Amino acid sequence: MSSIKIIQGSCVDQEVDAIVNASNQYLASGSGVCGEIFRRAGYRELTEACDKIKSPVNDGDAVITESFNIDNCKHIIHAVGPNFNRTPDAYDKLFDAYYNSLQILKNNNLHSIAFPLISSGIFGGNLPNPAKVSAEQCLKAYNRFIEDNKDYDINVLLCAYSQNEYEEIKEII
Q1: Number of compact structural domains in the chain
Q2: pTM score of the predicted model
Q3: DSSP reduced 3-state for 37
Q4: Sheet with 62-66: strands ordered across
């Protein structure tokens, strides 16, 4: 049976089949969760794998790589969330980033995934509550996915890194 749960912590620390990198369009190392994933996976190995993927990757799309030196997961799904500084009403692209990550999970016969709050950091722009917007789009994508894939069980962890973010979103699910 599928499930979704909000937790306080880093997606990088979770024991799951795949963790999600809140990636930029060029799949390059960045700050926040992206930088931590590159650091733990091995900067050289993950950069080489990402360089083999055609970029730029469109907002809302997702791609998969190995997890390399991260032992608590098998794969990294790189989801490109929209930059709300440039596209202030790109909620559909945020939904797509979550939904397409779930589709990649299924396409690779994986069943558990840990998401960060995509587009809630520097890509959050002027949204009044980017963590809440991100969590709402994650839940919407999860609900659509389980409706579209009734016979495929997934377990989703939505990870609020800070206690503040967690307090803002814990009641959404």
Answers
A1: 1
A2: 0.97
A3: helix
A4: 3-8, 155-160, 112-115, 18-23, 75-80, 62-66
